[in-house]
């Protein structure tokens, strides 16, 4: 029997009915990934990387899963496709993007998967929801907490709580 891993997933989208897509992603992830432990609020942010596009809604989820990391990635990509994701442009507009932020305390470096996600410390739209649900979680490479990373983050994009 596999051991359970704590995984953090970052969700975001800026096309279509984004709130409905986030809700549907949570449902599909619970079926495919495992037990949902907690989820952050939803936050609205300007696009990062390519800012000539609509604002994003972002959220972070924490799961317990038995899936190996490569199978988790496959499950996530299937859900992105089900929710209308088309991979046409790097950092372009999308209906749904799901990133593996952390897979326990493991460091994974393969041609298809980098974990922890390499841009966590540079993205307020990831750090703000991470701090909400796991502020004391330690980054396995830097050994800094999510709170520390947010305090040090140089990204100045506003991350606004979305009251639903």
SSE layout:
Layout: E1 5-13, H1 18-32, E2 34-39, E3 43-45, E4 56-65, H2 69-82, E5 97-103, E6 108-109, E7 114-115, H3 124-134, H4 146-152, E8 159-161
Antiparallel strand pairs: 1-4, 1-5, 2-4, 3-4, 3-8, 6-7
Helix pairs in contact: 1-2, 3-4
Structure description:
It is a single chain. The chain is of the alpha+beta class and 164 residues long. The protein has one domain (5-161): Alpha-Beta Plaits (2-Layer Sandwich). Helices cover 29% and strands 26% of the residues. The chain has helices at residues 18-32, 69-82, 124-134, 146-152, and strands at 5-13, 34-39, 43-45, 56-65, 97-103, 108-109, 114-115, 159-161. The strands form 2 sheets. Strands 1, 2, 3, 4, 5 and 8 form a 6-stranded antiparallel β-sheet that branches. Strands 6-7 form a two-stranded antiparallel ribbon. A hairpin with a 4-residue loop joins β6 and β7 (114-115). α1 (18-32) packs antiparallel against α2 (69-82) and α3 runs antiparallel to α4. The longest helix has 15 residues, at 18-32. The N and C termini lie far apart (40 Å). The model has no long low-confidence stretch (mean pLDDT 92).
């Amino acid at each position: 029997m596999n051991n359970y891993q704590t995984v953090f997933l970052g969700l975001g989208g800026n096309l279509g009915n984004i709130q409905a897509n986030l809700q549907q992603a949570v449902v599909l992830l619970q079926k495919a990934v495992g037990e949902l432990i907690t989820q952050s609020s939803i936050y609205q942010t300007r696009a990062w990387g390519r800012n000539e596009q609509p604002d994003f809604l972002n959220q972070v989820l924490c799961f317990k899963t038995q899936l190996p990391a490569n199978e988790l990635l496959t499950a996530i990509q299937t859900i992105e496709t089900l929710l209308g994701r088309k991979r046409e442009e790097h950092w372009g507009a999308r209906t749904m993007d799901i990133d593996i932020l952390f897979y326990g305390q493991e460091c994974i470096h393969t041609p298809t998967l980098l974990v922890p996600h390499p841009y966590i410390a540079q993205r307020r739209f990831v750090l703000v929801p991470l701090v909400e649900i796991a502020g004391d979680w330690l980054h396995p490479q830097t050994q800094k907490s999510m709170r520390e990373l947010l305090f040090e983050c140089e990204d100045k994009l506003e991350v606004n709580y979305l009251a639903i």
